[in-house]
Amino acid sequence: MVQELDTHAQELLAQYESLLPVYTQMADIIPEKLKGFFNDAGIIVAAVEHRVKARESLAGKLKLKGGKYRDIFDITDLVGIRVITFYIDDVDKVASVLERLFDIDWENSIDKRKAHEIDSFGYLSLHYICSIPESAYTDPEHPEVNKIRFEVQMRTVLQHAWANMNHDTGYKSGVEIPRVYMRDMSRLAGMLELVDDEFSRIRRELTDYRRNVQNLVASGNLKEVMLDGDSFRSFLQIGPFDRLNKRIASMNQAEIQPVDLSKFLPVFKAMGFKTLGDIAALIKDYSDAAYQIACFQMGITDLDILASSVAPQNLCTAFILKNGGGRTGLKLMLDELNGPSESNEFMADFLLEQSKDLPFMNK
Fold first, then answer.
1. Cα separation of 250 and 195, whole Å?
2. CA 160, CA 183: separation in Å to the nearest integer?
3. In the predicted model, is pLDDT for residue 179 greater than 60?
4. Are 6 and 150 found together in one domain?
């Protein structure tokens, strides 16, 4: 191949070989730096890939159009980085990180997402041609590091998968694909593009929902908030059981040990609760009963450390007993909280026995 190149192309290839260690170093370091910046920006990406153009590939390129390059620094894709995101929206977030870190050659960068061809889905990448500014990094031994431009492609997981599949089926064999199969592939591309859009739409709407839930919880409009994982986490952040826990702990001047209360969500759902307002009503209506249970439990002990789960568990116990759930209801609650075991049967019997004569059971 080299023998077939003209003198200028051979000079460019020699320049490439002399700079190959720098290209390799850049291809190793830049992705790792990018991952750190993405992490700091809260951007979760599927992958950051890199490659240095192989000598044979460059030689083939120079054979075809070596005359358009004055020197090796005019070739912008010798170092290639590809950032693969999960969502379309994140492509622009990744781009904003690159714009802060590098100098962007806007004239040679291209946004292929603006293409409108039906079969262009897998090639809708955003391509930036970048260089490292001297203000960010310099290497006295390799000053050319600031002159070398490199390409960063940004695309989604689905776009990446489609591009690879289309390349393998459409080009690798060297045989022209019949029109009927090209049409099928174009239809599939349209479906994948719709899926990509829908994933991003669902994420945006979920984000809006969570933000709305947080606002409703903060404002106290709990009856309007459906009980689910997101709303329950927001509810726990305002410490709804703190007051009752402190009241119970004051009996022995005990220290309250925080524990994960998210495990109570399925218990509340099993009790038929639909909204956060139902839990707020439980706290309002059954706190005295829960306190009575705690008094009986702690009256003969000197416990000085108390798990923060005591309040919600006693509230649930009082609700189950007062509403006829009996031993079966108590065991189901304990199985959900602690995992199924025979000891839960004995604990259910114990709770039933110790609570039957408490004031709240006789109202």
1. 55
2. 20
3. yes
4. yes
